[in-house]
Design goal:
The structure is a homodimer of 135-residue chains.
Chain A lengths: L3 H4 L4 E5 L3 E5 L9 E5 L11 H22 L3 E6 L8 E7 L26 H12 L2
Antiparallel strand pairs in A: 1-2, 2-3, 3-5, 4-5
Helix pairs in contact in A: 2-3
């Protein structure tokens, strides 16, 4: 049994503490797409203690707030799925009316081709790290 | 501007308090699919106060825990998307290896036809309501 999120960072490092980390995801058409990954191997939120869940969600919501302020998306999508990699990770996805799938979820059939922008711009990553460091 | 989740229950009523409600969703192949809906109109988790977010997530995680115990799914999927209906609601979806989309998200192209089971069985709804009432 090898777990991708136990063995790799899972994206471009933005911030980490002892419990979790925030990484940027390179997905064409989705600038600012981040994942918040629990460092230890656990499959479900309810595998964590209540206080751990609360701290993880606090990081997720801090990322959401920062991305809203920095990118002013039309919507934020949050999801913890993990059917393929059952190691707790939250997708935090800024959505825009002209993004490849809007208004469908990003896992649906695309409605249009991605704009060239993608990945987490260095200025966004730095701004996120600064906000998370104040937690 | 009419909002579907301001004007309708949004599913089969299971439980509600002053802030939020839990409803069962009729989706072929997805027994136990629930949504946790914030009663007031708000688009994003970070539009709520911190204490409100925490209480909403406590309901989401209580539903998750109950569905795990009742249905023993292979995975739980949690998502707050709202691109079409930007009124805060959490999908809580028990996933099974033989469900229509596994291991893809339920919004992807189906991999197989749904089994006849769907909707929230009355016994599941009752068991959920009992657990939520103890919150």
């Amino acid at each position: 049994m090898t777990c991708e999120l136990c063995n790799t960072e899972g994206g471009a490092p933005i911030w980490r503490n002892e419990e979790c980390r925030v990484v940027g995801i390179e997905e064409p058409g989705y600038p600012g797409f981040c994942r918040v990954i629990w460092n230890a191997h656990a499959a479900e939120m309810t595998d964590l203690a209540e206080a751990e869940r609360a701290r993880l969600m606090r990081v997720v919501f801090t990322v959401e707030a920062a991305l809203r302020e920095l990118l002013q998306p039309d919507k934020i999508n949050l999801a913890s799925l993990g059917n393929v990699v059952p190691h707790l990770h939250w997708h935090v996805i800024p959505r825009f009316r002209d993004d490849p799938h809007f208004p469908s979820p990003i896992w649906a059939t695309p409605a249009r081709a991605p704009a060239p922008a993608g990945g987490t711009r260095p200025d966004i990553a730095l701004a996120l790290a600064a906000r998370l460091s104040r937690l």
